[in-house]
Design goal:
The protein folds into three domains: 66 residues, Roll (Archaeosine Trna-guanine Transglycosylase, Chain: A, domain 4), CATH 2.30.130; 123 residues, Rossmann fold; 230 residues. By secondary structure, it is α/β, with parallel strands linked by helices. Helix content is 29%, strand content 19%. A seven-stranded parallel beta sheet has the order 19-20-18-17-21-22-23, with helices on both faces. Strands 1-2-5-8 form a four-stranded antiparallel beta sheet, with no helix packed on it.
């Protein structure tokens, strides 16, 4: 393996693939100047500026936060420059179907789980206690019994309360749940009666409700309901389904300097394969699009979609400013330790998860995807748990999560962890499901790894459990945006 890699022919920096001893020690994932870079000149990576040199940088020097800064500034005017027509990629026949659970509304689940969803944080303890008491129901055609706790559902106002209700309603109807117990208190703002109004049509056999204040023993009644739901779930069977029924969320976290070289590009090729097979993918974490947003805008399928992307980006920047924050307050300390210097550096690597397919739609936070197939963008912050929950609520049955630093978390749906480097995959084998570091260490092509990843996704969709599921991890996080009473 080479010591460094120049990603694009226009780049004036290379990325270290292993420790480099030159003018100064440079760790893997960090940048090295390929030529003298003058103060005020752009630092180029991925073929685009990722920042401005703040001092003279001699060739061979370490390029990072100590000698460069972001070049992101105030809002800019965006112009639609449609990309050339996209060519679908060839998808083998063995990658066009999977085994899933068909629900009454026609959607397909990849798990048959029993979920307990509290309407309000006051009953989190009750939900967990019921799940623990009924844990033995898991096994025979039931993947897990899960209580999703959260601190919301009351003392909220305006859009903040609306988003909570919409996210909870989205998850209550999620096809990965074979049965759902909606557990309320009784006096909360988002009580069961109110929440039912957000559900629309739903399967009354599979979605049940219990208000703790209305019964003498909520444990006894909750367990009775779960046992009834379990009996129904045991009648469910997997059947052959087309990949067009799959929606895969795309997310990254704990990124490093190799994220945009290995895991994210491989995931991008996977996304193109999924779209070519008739399926859908969703890219989110809007703040990590800043600096690469024009690339996504030019891939809009039409002018209406372009305008939606512009609105999403502009509204999110205003969200930062309205709270007194600068839009470039990123990357995180872990990102910087891994070699990412600016938000542009992070964004140009992050957005590669979307591949090259056209953007067919833009979803607001808590909005579910419609019937249109292809690549979607979703309004949500970069926070791992909040963004991943938003992807699940939008309709994703599975999330691909690329990481260079590692993380054990999981969200309401299976979260398949993809490492950017093989060292992480070996060191954290209990966290990582797929190693994209092999692109550099084993000479496997990006296309071959993407096909292997596609096969792994179909296996997981068909019932194979990812590492976080095996560990029993599942979390829910809602985007807090307003006043708490």
């Amino acid at each position: 393996m080479s010591e460094t890699i120049q990603i694009h022919e226009k780049d004036n920096v290379a990325v270290a693939l292993q420790p480099v001893d030159g003018k100064e020690p440079v760790e893997p994932g960090h940048k090295i100047a390929l030529q003298d870079i003058r103060k005020g000149d752009p630092v180029i990576k991925y073929g685009y500026p990722i920042g401005i040199a703040t001092e003279e940088i001699p060739a061979g020097s370490h390029v990072h936060t100590h000698n460069m800064r972001t070049c992101l500034g105030p809002d800019q005017a965006y112009t639609y420059h449609p990309a050339k027509p996209w060519q679908e990629v060839s998808v083998p026949e063995n990658l066009r179907t999977f085994m899933g659970y068909e629900r009454k509304d026609g959607r397909i689940g990849i798990r048959n789980e029993l979920w307990i969803i509290p309407t309000v944080g006051c009953v989190n303890g009750n939900a967990k206690a019921i799940a623990t008491a009924c844990a033995g129901l898991a096994g025979e055609k039931i993947d897990a019994v899960i209580a999703f706790s959260h601190p919301y559902g009351c003392s909220q106002m305006g859009d903040d309360q609306e988003y909570t209700r919409e996210i909870l309603a989205d998850l209550i109807r999620h096809p990965n749940a074979g049965g759902v117990l909606v557990l309320g208190l009784g006096c909360e703002n988002s009580n069961i009666g109110v929440l039912k109004g957000y559900l629309g049509e739903y399967d009354e056999e599979r979605i049940r409700f219990l208000s703790c204040q209305d019964v003498e023993d909520e444990m006894e009644e909750g367990c009775r309901i779960l046992n009834e739901l379990a009996a129904l779930c045991r009648e469910d069977k997997r059947s052959v389904q087309p990949v067009s029924k799959l929606m895969i969320g795309l997310k990254c976290g704990g990124s490093d300097g190799l994220s945009g070289i290995t895991a994210n590009p491989v995931t991008g090729v996977f996304s193109d394969l999924m779209v070519s097979a008739g399926g859908s993918t969703i890219l989110t974490e809007v703040p990590e699009m800043f600096g690469a947003e024009t690339i996504l805008m030019d891939r809009a399928a039409d002018r209406e979609t372009f305008d939606k992307i512009v609105s999403m980006i502009s509204d999110f920047k205003e969200y930062f400013r309205s709270n007194g924050e600068v839009i470039s307050e990123n990357p995180s300390p872990g990102n910087k330790a891994g070699g990412i210097s600016t938000l542009e550096d992070k964004a140009l690597g992050c957005t590669q998860k979307s591949g090259s397919a056209p953007v067919v739609d833009v979803l607001r936070y808590a909005q579910q995807a419609g019937t249109r197939k292809g690549l979607h963008l979703l309004e949500a912050p970069g926070n791992d748990l909040v963004a991943s929950t938003a992807l699940a609520a939008a309709g994703a049955q599975l999330i691909l999560f690329t990481t260079g630093r590692g993380t054990p978390f999981a969200c309401p749906v299976p979260t398949l962890k993809i490492s950017t480097n093989s060292t992480l995959a070996r060191r954290k084998s209990g966290w990582i499901d797929f190693d994209c570091g092999r692109l550099l260490t084993d000479g496997i092509t990006k296309e071959a790894l993407a096909k292997e990843l596609f096969e792994r996704v179909l296996a997981v969709a068909g019932g194979d459990h990812v590492k976080s599921e095996q560990a029993g991890y599942a979390d829910l996080a809602i985007w807090k945006q307003g006043v708490t009473l």
